[in-house]
Protein backbone atom coordinates (compact mmCIF):
# COMPACT_ATOMS: atom_id res chain seq x y z
CA UNK A 1 0.00 0.00 0.00
CA UNK A 2 1.12 3.53 -0.77
CA UNK A 3 -0.64 6.63 0.54
CA UNK A 4 0.01 9.88 -1.32
CA UNK A 5 -0.60 13.46 -0.21
CA UNK A 6 0.01 16.38 -2.57
CA UNK A 7 0.69 19.95 -1.53
CA UNK A 8 2.02 23.18 -2.96
CA UNK A 9 -0.77 24.22 -5.29
CA UNK A 10 -2.18 27.71 -5.36
CA UNK A 11 -3.15 30.76 -7.38
CA UNK A 12 -0.35 32.35 -9.38
CA UNK A 13 -0.02 34.80 -12.21
CA UNK A 14 1.05 33.70 -15.65
CA UNK A 15 4.81 33.40 -15.78
CA UNK A 16 5.05 32.43 -12.14
CA UNK A 17 6.32 29.26 -10.53
CA UNK A 18 5.15 26.64 -8.10
CA UNK A 19 6.71 23.58 -6.54
CA UNK A 20 4.34 20.71 -5.93
CA UNK A 21 5.21 18.02 -3.44
CA UNK A 22 3.83 14.54 -2.99
CA UNK A 23 4.56 12.85 0.31
CA UNK A 24 4.27 9.10 0.30
CA UNK A 25 3.91 6.55 3.02
CA UNK A 26 4.36 2.84 2.57
CA UNK A 27 7.29 0.55 2.05
CA UNK A 28 7.07 0.34 -1.72
CA UNK A 29 7.58 4.02 -2.53
CA UNK A 30 11.31 3.76 -3.15
CA UNK A 31 10.77 0.97 -5.68
CA UNK A 32 7.80 2.61 -7.41
CA UNK A 33 7.76 4.61 -10.57
CA UNK A 34 5.89 7.85 -9.95
CA UNK A 35 3.88 10.17 -12.11
CA UNK A 36 2.18 13.54 -12.06
CA UNK A 37 -1.12 13.97 -13.86
CA UNK A 38 -3.56 16.85 -14.14
CA UNK A 39 -7.23 17.28 -14.81
CA UNK A 40 -8.90 20.47 -15.92
CA UNK A 41 -12.66 20.98 -15.58
CA UNK A 42 -14.54 19.02 -18.22
CA UNK A 43 -11.42 17.28 -19.48
CA UNK A 44 -9.83 13.88 -19.04
CA UNK A 45 -6.99 13.35 -16.64
CA UNK A 46 -3.72 13.64 -18.57
CA UNK A 47 -0.12 12.64 -18.05
CA UNK A 48 2.25 15.45 -17.15
CA UNK A 49 5.53 13.87 -16.00
CA UNK A 50 6.94 10.57 -14.79
CA UNK A 51 10.08 9.38 -13.04
CA UNK A 52 11.61 5.97 -12.54
CA UNK A 53 12.23 4.55 -9.07
CA UNK A 54 15.93 5.49 -9.22
CA UNK A 55 15.47 8.86 -11.00
CA UNK A 56 17.43 7.61 -14.00
CA UNK A 57 14.53 8.10 -16.39
CA UNK A 58 12.12 11.03 -16.62
CA UNK A 59 9.32 11.68 -19.06
CA UNK A 60 7.21 14.75 -19.90
CA UNK A 61 4.26 15.60 -22.06
CA UNK A 62 5.33 17.82 -24.90
CA UNK A 63 3.57 20.97 -23.77
CA UNK A 64 5.44 21.09 -20.45
CA UNK A 65 8.95 20.15 -21.57
CA UNK A 66 11.43 22.80 -20.55
CA UNK A 67 9.02 24.29 -18.00
CA UNK A 68 8.26 21.39 -15.63
CA UNK A 69 10.81 19.27 -13.78
CA UNK A 70 10.00 16.09 -11.91
CA UNK A 71 12.32 14.83 -9.19
CA UNK A 72 12.22 12.59 -6.16
CA UNK A 73 13.98 12.08 -2.86
CA UNK A 74 13.63 8.48 -1.75
CA UNK A 75 15.15 9.30 1.64
CA UNK A 76 12.20 11.62 2.25
CA UNK A 77 9.59 9.52 0.44
CA UNK A 78 8.70 12.56 -1.63
CA UNK A 79 8.31 13.35 -5.31
CA UNK A 80 8.33 16.92 -6.59
CA UNK A 81 7.10 18.81 -9.60
CA UNK A 82 8.76 22.16 -10.22
CA UNK A 83 6.56 24.23 -12.49
CA UNK A 84 7.99 27.34 -14.12
CA UNK A 85 6.66 29.82 -16.69
CA UNK A 86 3.09 28.92 -15.80
CA UNK A 87 0.39 29.49 -18.39
CA UNK A 88 -3.38 29.79 -17.93
CA UNK A 89 -3.77 26.47 -19.74
CA UNK A 90 -1.82 24.80 -16.92
CA UNK A 91 -4.78 25.42 -14.63
CA UNK A 92 -5.95 22.06 -13.28
CA UNK A 93 -6.00 19.77 -10.31
CA UNK A 94 -2.62 18.07 -10.16
CA UNK A 95 -2.37 14.49 -8.92
CA UNK A 96 0.59 12.32 -8.09
CA UNK A 97 0.39 8.59 -8.61
CA UNK A 98 2.45 5.51 -7.91
CA UNK A 99 2.92 2.35 -9.90
CA UNK A 100 4.84 -0.24 -7.85
CA UNK A 101 4.19 -2.91 -10.41
CA UNK A 102 5.55 -0.98 -13.35
CA UNK A 103 3.71 -0.38 -16.58
CA UNK A 104 3.43 2.61 -18.82
CA UNK A 105 4.25 5.96 -17.30
CA UNK A 106 1.71 7.64 -19.54
CA UNK A 107 -1.49 5.68 -18.89
CA UNK A 108 -3.81 6.57 -16.03
CA UNK A 109 -4.93 2.96 -15.63
CA UNK A 110 -1.39 1.68 -15.07
CA UNK A 111 -1.09 3.54 -11.75
CA UNK A 112 -2.27 1.79 -8.60
CA UNK A 113 -2.28 4.60 -6.06
CA UNK A 114 -3.40 8.22 -6.29
CA UNK A 115 -3.34 11.27 -4.09
CA UNK A 116 -6.30 13.57 -3.55
CA UNK A 117 -4.90 16.29 -5.79
CA UNK A 118 -3.83 19.90 -5.38
CA UNK A 119 -5.36 22.81 -7.29
CA UNK A 120 -3.17 24.97 -9.51
CA UNK A 121 -4.82 28.10 -10.89
CA UNK A 122 -2.97 30.42 -13.25
CA UNK A 123 -4.39 33.87 -13.90
CA UNK A 124 -3.63 35.77 -17.08
Describe what this molecule looks like in 3D:
With 124 residues, the protein is mainly beta. The protein contains no helices and eleven strands. It has strands at residues 3-7, 10-13, 18-25, 33-39, 46-51, 58-60, 68-73, 78-83, 92-99, 113-114, 118-123. Strands 2, 4, 5, 6, 9, 10 and 11 form a seven-stranded mixed beta sheet that branches. A four-stranded antiparallel beta sheet has the order 1-3-8-7, with no helix packed on it. The chain is globular, with a radius of gyration of 13 Å. The mean pLDDT is 95.
Features:
4-stranded antiparallel beta sheet, 11 strands
Task: Tell me briefly what this model is.
This protein is mainly β and 124 residues long.
Q: Largest sheet at a glance?
A: 7 strands, mixed
The helix tally amounts to 0
Radius of gyration equals: 13 Å
Task: Tell me the β content.
Answer: over 45%
Helix content class:
under 10%
**Which parts are unreliable, with pLDDT below 50 for 5 consecutive residues or more?**
none
> Pairing-aware structural class of the strands and helices?
mainly beta
Q: What is the CA-CA span between the terminal residues?
A: 40 Å
How do the helices and strands follow one another from N- to C-terminus?
EEEEEEEEEEE
According to DSSP, the number of beta strands is 11
Average of per-residue pLDDT values: 95
The shape is: globular
